[in-house]
C-alpha cells in the first residue's frame, strides 16, 4: 500500500471555526467561517453548507495514487481531513462568489471589452477578489490563477493551485440568462483533483472530487448511456466560435448527431454530468474554462479530453500564459470515441 507523499501534507490543521471568509456585502475582510451565511435571506437553499465527509477508497480511478489508500489508519484519517478542508473552503469560495453575482445579476453596470474583445464586468472582478481573499486566508501557501488577475503566490513551485473563473459565460450573465457558472478547480501538481460548477441564480452546485462520484447539491449523479453518436444530443456555446479546420471538424460531428443545441457555456457540461446531454464540443477554451469540469465529468462516469483524446491538465507556473485548447466531453465512452474520430 502506498504511503502518503511528504509533499502532500498540508501545513494547516484547522477546525471549521478557524477558516475565514471575505464579506463583499459588508466590505469586511476575513471573518470567521463559522459565522458565514451564504444566503443572508432566510429562504431555503440546496447549496451544501456543512463539511463533506470524504472516503478516499470508493473509486479506483484516482489520478492521485498517493491519496487512494494507506496501511496506517492515522495517516488515512489525516488525508481525509486534508481533502475535507479543501472541499469545505471550495464550497465557501463558491458561496462568496455567488453573493457578489446575485447582487449584480440583471442590474445595470458598465461592461468593459478586454484585448481579446471578451467582456468583463465589475461583477467578474469583485467576485474574483472575494474568492482570492478567502483562499489566501486559509491556504496562504497555495497558488491562485484567476481569469481576471492571473497568478498569485508567494512560492515559486507550489503543489496546490486554485484556478478560478468567477463568471464562465459573461455574455449570458450580462444579458440576464442564468446559464453562466462559477468555476473552481484545485490542481495538485498540475492535475485537477477537485472541481466545482456553481450556478448561483438557480442554486445548483456540482462537485467533483478525483476518485469520488460527482454530486449535484449533495446527491450523486451519473451520465446517461447513449449507444451511438447518431442518437446524441450535442451542445456547444456557439457555432460561430469555430473557425478554419476546427470549424470543419465541428461540422462533421454536428452533421452526425441527433440534435445540435447551442448557448450554455459551462452549464452544458453540468447537464452532461447530470445525464441530460450526451456530448459537448468546444474550441479555444482556456484552462480556467475547463479544469473544473474534469473531476465533475469523470466523477459522473463521463469522459473529457482534448480533440486528440489526451487528458486535460495544466502545469501552471508564474510564467504561464493560458493557451487555447479544443475540448470534447461525452457521457458515454462510445460517443466520445466516435466524436474523436470525426474531430481528427
UniProtKB/TrEMBL annotation:
Name of the protein in question: histidinol-phosphatase
Compositionally biased region (Pro residues): 39-49
Source superkingdom: Eukaryota
Keyword Metal-binding (UniProt): yes
Pathway stated in the Swiss-Prot or TrEMBL entry: Amino-acid biosynthesis; L-histidine biosynthesis; L-histidine from 5-phospho-alpha-D-ribose 1-diphosphate: step 8/9
Disordered, as annotated region: 32-55
UniProt enzyme class: hydrolase
Membrane spanning stretches: none
Gene3D superfamilies reported for this sequence: 3.40.190.80, Fructose-1,6-Bisphosphatase, subunit A, domain 1 (3.30.540.10)
Pfam family, one: Inositol_P
Record-linked InterPro entries: His_9_proposed (IPR011809), Inositol_monoP_metal-BS (IPR020583), Inositol_monoP_superfamily (IPR051090), Inositol_monophosphatase-like (IPR000760)
Molecular function per GO: histidinol-phosphatase activity; metal ion binding
Keyword terms: Amino-acid biosynthesis, Histidine biosynthesis, Hydrolase, Magnesium, Metal-binding
GO biological process, one term: L-histidine biosynthetic process
The enzyme's E.C. designation: 3.1.3.15
Family note: Belongs to the inositol monophosphatase superfamily.
Protein transport is among the record's keywords: no
Cofactor: Mg(2+)
Record's signal peptide: none
Catalysed reactions, as listed in the record: L-histidinol phosphate + H2O = L-histidinol + phosphate
Residues reported to bind Mg(2+): 147, 165, 167-168, 289
